[in-house]
């Protein structure tokens, strides 16, 4: 469904949108913002400005205008895809035609003067494990056989904690947890010494499904409203002690950082690419997970980058150090397969639910999406420009994740900021 809104030659009367790294007119992501003293409301990013959608509701398609009346995007995410597409087309017209500049001017606000909020009320959060290179690398550190037998048959996931999801910029308090040190019998409770990042994408659920009614793989893409950047922080020492037999718990539920803008499924149409072929010998997915169209266009051409600064680096005015340059095409399972598997048992998804992809690492060492991989479980420290060394994150360290969708013939679009600084638990 590529249309005139994706035209690389399209320009906006909002001057800062021209060539903007994240938010040219070809993007038009959705988010919730507020100005000082005002209540949160829906908006769209255009260049370095935010357009107040509630203020121009009378200029928008009727159902989308009604859906943005509240302080979250749940109603808008739950609209049918054709109605979300109609909203995008209308916004594109309003922001590209200079005749609308005067009418929209009072509802444009500098992004630097606005506060961003969670874009939706997240009812449930599920984190998957679809990055096969990450799963293999972690498995090599833990067991003789890196991948368990089920990995290539089902999209593995666990139920995360929706209440601790926060937008970019909110500090991460170093978690305390039970852990057992090597060569000891009795565990202790202490702040984690092995705090890690996880480079992920977040998948926002659009229209959900009724309890007991699975979403077929052929329709799963219509239930995906958009993507966001996601960092599922992990306490590796706590995780090592608690994860058997039921998987992650306190090691991962203390904080999840997301970028505040939802890059819509409609904006991402030009960046859909074929799913990477499975290696010879890998099983073909079972029928409920297999769809030819999804295999042809179910992956996304999105570059993902992780960088970091220490407090000392910031004090000296140093640029962030790149830790990883990854690619969303390294996912072993597609977003649609995640949705289909999540509901095959009749589980009901709802508009605003969030699915994490799991850490996305590439096969190349420069594309590893966690410090656990980058430092080989802490055995190979990285050296910062200041001469400091890191195996895992210390207080004062800041992690910055960015993402850019690219395709030949189309304007690149980005996801905005996904960053957070580690602070002491005390």
Concise overview:
This protein is α+β, with helices and mostly antiparallel strands.
What would your notes on this structure say?
It is a single chain. The chain has two domains: about 5-115, SH3 type barrels, CATH 2.30.30.230; about 125-425, Fumarylacetoacetate hydrolase, domain 2 (Alpha-Beta Complex). It is an alpha+beta fold and about 425 residues long. The protein is globular and about 70 Å long. It has helices at about 60-65, 75, 80-95, 100-105, 130-140, 235-240, 290-295, 310-315, 335-345, 370-375, and strands spanning about 30-35, 40-45, 50, 110, 115, 125-130, 155-160, 165, 170-175, 175-180, 190, 195, 200-205, 225-230, 235, 255-260, 265, 270-275, 300, 300-310, 320-325, 355, 380-385, 390, 400-405, 415, 420-425. The strands form seven sheets. Strands 6, 7, 8, 13, 14, 16, 17 and 22 form an eight-stranded mixed β-sheet that branches. Strands 9, 20, 21, 25, 26 and 27 form a six-stranded mixed β-sheet that branches. It has a five-stranded antiparallel β-sheet with strand order 4-3-2-1-5, with no helix packed on it.
Regions with little confidence, pLDDT below 50 for 5+ residues? none
The number of distinct β-strands equals 27
Approximate helicity band? 10-25%
- Cα Rg: 21 Å
Stated plainly, the CATH topology of the largest domain is called Fumarylacetoacetate hydrolase, domain 2
């Amino acid at each position: 469904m590529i249309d005139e809104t994706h035209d690389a030659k399209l320009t906006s009367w909002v001057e800062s949108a021209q060539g903007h790294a994240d938010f040219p007119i070809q993007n038009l992501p959705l988010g919730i913002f507020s100005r000082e003293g005002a209540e949160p409301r829906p908006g769209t990013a255009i260049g370095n400005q935010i357009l107040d959608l509630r203020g121009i509701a009378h200029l928008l398609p009727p159902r989308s205008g009604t859906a943005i009346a509240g302080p979250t995007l749940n109603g808008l995410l739950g609209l049918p895809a054709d109605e979300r597409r109609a909203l995008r087309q209308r916004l594109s017209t309003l922001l590209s035609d200079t005749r609308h500049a005067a009418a929209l001017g009072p509802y444009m606000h500098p992004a630097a003067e606005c506060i961003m909020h969670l874009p939706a009320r997240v009812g449930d959060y599920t984190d998957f494990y679809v990055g096969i290179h990450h799963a293999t690398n972690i498995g090599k550190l833990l067991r003789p056989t890196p991948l368990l037998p089920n990995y290539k048959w089902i999209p593995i996931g666990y139920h995360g904690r929706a209440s601790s999801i926060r937008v970019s910029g909110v500090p991460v308090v170093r978690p305390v947890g039970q852990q057992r040190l090597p060569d000891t019998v009795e565990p202790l409770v202490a702040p984690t010494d092995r705090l890690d990042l996880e480079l992920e994408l977040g998948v926002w659920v659009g229209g959900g499904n009724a309890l007991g009614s699975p979403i077929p793989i052929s329709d799963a893409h219509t239930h995906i409203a958009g993507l966001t950047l996601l960092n599922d922080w992990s306490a590796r020492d706590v995780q090592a002690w608690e994860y058997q037999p039921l998987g992650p718990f306190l090691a991962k539920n203390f904080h999840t950082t997301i970028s505040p803008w939802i890059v819509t499924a409609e904006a991402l149409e030009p960046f859909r690419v074929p799913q990477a072929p499975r290696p010879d010998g890998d099983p073909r997915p079972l029928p409920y997970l297999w769809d030819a169209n999804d295999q042809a266009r179910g992956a996304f051409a999105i570059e993902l980058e992780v960088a970091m600064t220490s407090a000392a680096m910031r004090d000296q005015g140093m640029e962030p150090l790149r830790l990883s340059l990854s690619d969303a095409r390294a996912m072993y399972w597609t977003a649609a397969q995640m949705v289909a598997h999540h509901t095959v048992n009749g589980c009901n998804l709802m508009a605003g639910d969030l699915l994490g992809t799991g850490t996305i690492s590439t096969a190349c060492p420069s594309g590893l999406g966690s410090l656990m991989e980058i430092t080989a479980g802490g055995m190979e420290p990285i050296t910062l420009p200041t001469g400091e060394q890191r195996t895992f994150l210390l207080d004062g360290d800041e992690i910055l994740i960015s993402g850019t969708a690219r395709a030949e013939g189309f304007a690149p679009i980005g996801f905005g900021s996904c960053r957070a600084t580690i602070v002491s638990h005390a």
